[in-house]
Amino acid sequence: LERTLIIVKPDAVQRGLIGEVLARLERRGLKLVALKMMWMSESLAEAHYAEHREKEFFSDLVRFITSGPVVVGVVEGPNAIEVTRTMMGETNPATSPPGSIRGDLALTISQNVIHGSSSPEAAQREVALFFRPEEILSYERAIDRWVAG
Ligand code: GTP
Ligand code: MG
């Protein structure tokens, strides 16, 4: 089983889409094992998006992700990283297929509703950046053997 970090971004919180985004992940069968609402600090945002620090859009990205509250979670399941990325669609919502989160709920690259870790290394780093080990819960659901068997 893999774990990955998801962030419901400030645009989605403002638009009342927290439940919609989390519901899609839940319906897929992924298990939420950590969840919190927070307002990211500039330093946390810069650490989270460190890989983009040299990009011309970096300051806009940090300004956006710190512009309001976000919901941060850890989801667990078989291939959770790839499954979540596929469900998200492309970075640019304009080329994201209908049925994907960005393809159904977003229009522009700068306000694209959800973040999901892009690799096992990124997932491990990002989960540790946002959650202490004891905040990540280990529990069984009755449906686990039907979705993760
Ligand atoms: P995240 O899940 O947020 O990391 O998105 P991603 O993995 O699909 O894209 P990436 O990590 O490459 O970029 C991080 C974020 O930077 C994206 O979600 C966009 O909001 C923003 N971004 C990426 N490329 C561009 C760009 O060319 N222009 C602008 N304005 N923003 C960009
Ligand atoms: Mg990324």
Automatic annotation (TrEMBL):
Enzyme type, top EC level: transferase
**Which chemical reaction does it catalyze?**
a 2'-deoxyribonucleoside 5'-diphosphate + ATP = a 2'-deoxyribonucleoside 5'-triphosphate + ADP; a ribonucleoside 5'-diphosphate + ATP = a ribonucleoside 5'-triphosphate + ADP
Per the Swiss-Prot or TrEMBL record, the active site comprises: H115
What the record says about family reads: Belongs to the NDK family.
The UniProt keywords, alphabetically, are: ATP-binding, Cytoplasm, Kinase, Magnesium, Metal-binding, Nucleotide metabolism, Nucleotide-binding, Phosphoprotein, Transferase
Query: Quaternary structure per UniProt?
Result: Homotetramer.
Whichever gene encodes this chain, its name is: ndk
Annotated positions binding ATP: K9, F57, R85, T91, R102, N112
Q: Which GO terms describe its cellular component?
A: cytoplasm
List the cofactors: Mg(2+)
Which molecular function terms from Gene Ontology are attached?
ATP binding; metal ion binding; nucleoside diphosphate kinase activity
What organism is this sequence from? Thermalbibacter longus
Tell me where in or outside the cell this protein is found. Cytoplasm
Q: What is this protein called?
A: Nucleoside diphosphate kinase
What GO biological process, any one, is recorded here?
A: GTP biosynthetic process
| Entry-linked Pfam families | NDK
PROSITE patterns, alphabetically? NDPK_LIKE (PS51374)
Described purpose of this protein according to its UniProt entry? Major role in the synthesis of nucleoside triphosphates other than ATP. The ATP gamma phosphate is transferred to the NDP beta phosphate via a ping-pong mechanism, using a phosphorylated active-site intermediate.
Query: In the Enzyme Commission scheme, what number(s) does this protein have?
Result: 2.7.4.6
Q: Which domain of life is it from?
A: Bacteria
User: Where's the Nucleoside diphosphate kinase-like domain?
Assistant: 1-138
Cell division keyword on record: no
